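Marked as duplicate of an earlier ticket. Keeping the data here for the record.
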Amino acid sequence: MISKTKINKPSWLNLINIDSVYSFDKQRQVFSFISEYFRHRSHLAIADITLEQKQHAHTDQLTGAPNRRFITSHFLKLAASRPAHYLPLSILLIDLDNFKQLNDTYGHDFGDTVLIEFTKLLESQFPATALKARYGGEEFVVILPQQTTLEASILANRFRECVQNHVMLTDKHQRVSLTCSMGIAQTNSVDDYNNALKQADQYLYSAKAQGRNKVVSVHDQHASE
């Protein structure tokens, strides 16, 4: 005579066993809870991925600074929603002088190190309320809320002097000095930002033409005429 061996079922099977002490309604509640739990976990994962993608899209991957997209997608919208807290805006367009020559002489790895160090100088020398962004290549932009061009010029020249006194060392312990040129423009309206940026670019071009390591704004332009 063959004896019947009793098999112990895993306890979680009781949740779906029709012979369970749970009623059908109870089982449905359990499954609903499990489904909701995993749906919530999935949404959290998707939210994390979306946040990471947004951060990636609005951050310069080399320096960690905000990029051009961040200015148009976030900063200008915020300034437009709270003009009393932001306007006027002074825009500083900054270019590292002779950066291509530096890259060609010391290599692109050192060039990257210079860009990272320059970003740190921007962060340390300008107010926390200022937006400091990498605009592309060796070009950066600093936006100073509630600052006129006269006020911004003072900060810009302090920064220019800081950069020219900052010495970097290559991996072969060669001393390398940096300089930068700046153009400054002011806007009293967020809608006029692009025009002010173009004006700052023209002043930057003028600073380069004057021999680099200069800060030029409308006041300097009028003084030279």
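See parent ticket for discussion. The domain at 68-224 is CATH 3.30.70.270 (Alpha-Beta Plaits).
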